[in-house]
Amino acid sequence: MSNVNLEPIRNLALFNQPPEWEQADVKAAIQFVLNQIDRNLDRFTEQFPDASSTGNVYPAIGNIEWTSGFWTGMLWLAYEVTGDEKYRLTAEVQLASYRERAEQRLYTDTHDLGFLYSLSCVAAYKLTGNEEAKRVALLAADLLMERYFEKAGIVQAWGALDDPEQQGRMIIDCNLNLPLLYWASEVSGDSKYAAAAGAHIKQAAQYIVRDDGSTYHTFYMDVTTGKPKHGSTHQGYADDSCWARGQAWGIYGFPLSYIYTGDEALLELTKKVSNYYLNRLPDDLVAYWDLIFQDGTEQERDTSTGAVAACGLLELAKHLPVLDPSKRIYENAALHTLKSLSERYTSADTPESNGILLHGVYNKPRGMGIDECNIWGDYYYFEALVRISANWKLYW
Question: Is there a catalytic annotation at residue 173?
Fold first, then answer.
């Protein structure tokens, strides 16, 4: 991990104080999310929202995408917030499709098993003690372990393990998939899962995070020798730019590994990644899809980046000592971001939309989900709102 000094946060005048945002405003924001979930409940019981909307409306698909868990996770959040059994029952109906997906190895050639199963089966087990959900989540952890290259110390992101284009590729997103492995060690007593996750986060910290606190989206390791190869991008503007949502995955993912490893260096690294991010936001704190773009450009925003980053900043602040002066700064930055999202970027004035956050970007270079709702953006926005209104225990 780099020891370069932290880049000072420039907008301290704003972040030194929380926004003028009342508890009633947060409750209203949560209620809007609940209303949208209710609107979608029948349509997305046997099926799932697609990864991104089309014309701000999510099509219904099967449990085939890497994003299914975000919808099920929203159901569990809604159940926690309201205590209403209809959300639990819908989430439990969906568990059968996660079981089938894992047992039949359908669309499992991905590290995103963490996204899929932490928010569905692990959440179900933590909230209700569902033993079948626990069994399926452990099966998913075993599938994820198949993607671990011990010599390189990484979990391969996508594709067949012998695919020369994908072999040895780790991406910053994987930080959020590792909690499934840590959890598996906790409940099974087998340390191999946590050992793999701990090795991966060290490699991500060393190679994906650049000295200035920016991040590569993706980095390749030689799985035979264990040596680093090169960094590149898949969804960012350029190999040497900083894909905004990738930076947000870093802000949230490194503190999640800190929870399980106790490695204080991960918190310092998160500060560095966070400061780089906060210093490259436009005035309303909702990032453009790549941080190379700032005010005055014609590029699209990515609201999902702001939602993920808000969760990460809140998680980082939670683990900092009370006397750390940056603790409140990160909390306030998260609150200002959430206020901006709630006031400027929801679909409240777009009645035809069944999404929650407008103006997201899935994959700009490949023309996917541009200026649309993204289901992960909706989920993390809801999670962040729950975080600031309740003593929420993580599904991660």
Answer: yes
